[in-house]
Amino acid sequence: MNMEVPSDPMHEFWMKHCLELALKGKGLVAPNPMVGCAIVHDGKLIGEGFHNEFGGAHAEVAAIHSVADRSLLKSSVMYVSLEPCTHLGKTPPCVDLILEHKIPYVVIGCIDPNPLVSGSGIEKLIRGKADVKVGVLELECRELNRRFFTFQEKKRPYIILKWARSADGFIDRKRSMAEIGNQERITCNESNKLVHQWRSEEQAIMVGTTTALLDNPSLTVRHVEGRNPLRVVIDKELKIPDHYRLFDKTSKTLVFTGSEHTSEKNVEYVSLDFANNVMKQITDTLYKLNVSSIIIEGGRELVNGFINEGLWDEARVFTAPHKLGSGVKGPNVNKEPVSSERIGLDNLGIYMNT
């Protein structure tokens, strides 16, 4: 009969190390999860690894390959923040490599919600005579990959709402089409840089027609190093001119429209039925496109649409110290912030839809 890995006060210590390793893959591995792995022999770390890019080696593989003396694997403990995979995807199954090296003890943070895994990795390890412990820092492991878990369990992307408002609650002046590109600067430079960091960490970013027309945004990463997200825009009547930055083809753009339009290089058009639940159609399409997270940057109508449908997970709201006096009122999630911090001159509040 298989015995479970004995309780050890060091399990949480090494799992925390796995979580720290996993974070190194932030913004690089989506739609895959961030995973960290540590291999310990006689209380000493002999190997470690993390999933560092989509399509690249998984954490367990990297950790095993980092071990100098692999004969030690037969008497070591492997710690991994997410259940090892059993299916052949872009890389071979991790469970097979673990069993091949006869690693006798495996401590797992949480079960993989992907139906292709979902407990089968644990079962295969046990059948292969490995002793397995599951659930060490489980909540922390799930929180780390909340985008991945939302994508797998709710069949939609993890949705982040973001806006900036003045001290009196306005997100912009009331502008006409004669003021294209002349948007009101609300947040400070530090906040603007942070927003670009966020863009580099998520798979997609979205705006509505009015925001696209008035701001002519690039929706790219410019103030930090990182990958550009997929640019998503609603343009029901195809009002946005072809010469706008969204169509410069430097980054991929997805256009949701009510008209038929031929897609071209780096610009894809998807027709929606605007008489029915548009937000649900959008999230369903993004799910099919394997987009596991998206930032909704505006404007007010688009953000309120997601709020009204309950289709959001997190809201990030900047409040600047100055007042506008009048203009476009910002959205309201009708919740208290779970955290608040100072970013330069601004206050950043984080709200969770729980």
Describe the structure.
The protein is of the alpha/beta class. It is 26% helix and 24% strand. The chain has helices at 10-22, 59-66, 94-100, 120-127, 138-144, 146-154, 189-201, 209-215, 278-288, 300-308; strands spanning 36-41, 44-50, 77-82, 105-110, 131-134, 158-165, 170-172, 204-207, 230-234, 253-257, 267-271, 293-298, 314-319, 328-329, 339-343, 346-352. The protein has a nine-stranded mixed sheet, with helices on both faces. Strands 2-1-3-4-5 form a five-stranded mixed sheet, with helices on both faces. A two-stranded antiparallel ribbon has the order 7-14.
Order the strands across the largest sheet as they lie in space.
Answer: 11-10-9-8-12-6-13-16-15
CA-based gyration radius: 23 Å
Uncertain spans: none
Major β-sheet annotation: 9 strands, mixed
The appropriate CATH architecture of the largest domain is 3-Layer(aba) Sandwich
CATH topology of the largest domain: Dihydrofolate Reductase, subunit A
Number of domains: 2
